[in-house]
Write a structure and sequence with these properties.
The chain has about 270 residues and is an alpha/beta fold. The strands form two sheets. Strands 1, 2, 3, 4, 5, 6, 7 and 14 form an eight-stranded mixed sheet that branches. Strands 8-9-10-11-12-13 form a six-stranded mixed sheet, with no helix packed on it. The longest helix is centred in the last third of the chain and has 17 residues.
């Protein structure tokens, strides 16, 4: 096995489109700050299982839902061109998208599932609640019909019940996502039910999805305006998850925590 015997040989972070918001409208007592939030996709290169995606970012389908797209973009202005899509970025880097057969989905919002229709012949891995939302959810849950995968896609829930990990004592539901210990899943409720964050032990990186909209915003969650609270499926659970994350970050400084919408450049870890 190459790369020092690692199961995961490389990790790449891509920004596949973005949305724009004024933080003054999100948090009380915050000065006017227009921020662009990238829709991050993680490519995980596994030595035995090949290339795996964590989320798929935006695609131009976000503009093709008539009145729903108008309302979505009025409240959460999105930006994505063809060259921003995950399929374009992978092809740019010489990665054969036809060989991607596993996609881990954190949750079923448009900036995370927008690229599913661009890919073929894969299985979706996520929690039961996320899979159920993706299959049966509607516009009220921000699951747009034109982004749902077709009937040929397979679904699989990860192996639950991991009890001895760095996350024990912080979070209740921990999964062995692939069954080989290379990716741990952590359920991060609040933003949506069953949201799945993933931890790569070999790299000590924890991708915490939309548990918060940025590392620098963790401390502002209790200052969230009512409209921003309503966007969360369960604001009380959201605050609880952020509190657990803050304690985890403080007590495990060796682990890098990355949120889906952190303002970061595209990075490669080897």
């Amino acid at each position: 096995m190459e790369n020092g015997g690692k199961k995961i040989t490389e990790v790449r972070l891509y920004n596949c489109g973005c949305c724009k918001n004024n933080l003054r409208h999100v948090f009380k007592h915050h000065s006017k700050e227009i921020r662009f939030f990238p829709a991050r996709v993680v490519l995980i290169r596994h030595s035995q299982l090949g290339d795996i995606l964590y989320d798929t970012g935006y695609s131009k389908l976000i503009y093709q839902n008539h009145i729903l797209s108008f309302l979505y973009n009025a409240l959460n202005k999105s930006y994505v061109n063809e060259e921003d899509t995950i399929i374009s970025k992978l092809k740019r880097d010489g990665i054969v998208t036809e060989y991607i057969h596993k996609i881990i989905i954190s949750h079923a919002h448009p900036d995370h599932i927008g690229g599913l229709r661009l890919l073929q012949d894969y299985e979706i891995i996520s929690t039961e609640k996320v899979i159920d939302t993706l299959q049966s959810g509607g516009a009220f849950q921000l699951v747009f019909r034109n982004m749902k995968p077709d009937g040929s896609v397979k679904y699989r829930m990860p192996v639950a019940g991991v009890t001895d990990s760095v996350f024990s004592g912080y979070f209740e539901k921990i999964y062995d996502v692939l069954g080989d210990g290379s990716i741990l899943g952590v359920e991060l409720n609040g933003h949506v039910d069953g949201q799945l964050g993933i931890y790569l032990p070999e790299y000590q990186i924890f991708f915490a999805a939309d548990a918060c909209w940025g590392a620098d915003l963790l401390c502002k969650v209790k200052d969230m305006r009512k409209v921003a609270q309503w966007i969360q499926n369960d604001y009380k659970a959201y605050v609880d998850t952020v509190g657990r994350l803050e304690r985890f970050i403080k007590e495990n400084p060796e682990i890098k925590v990355i949120f889906s919408h952190d303002t970061m450049e595209e990075i490669r870890y080897e």
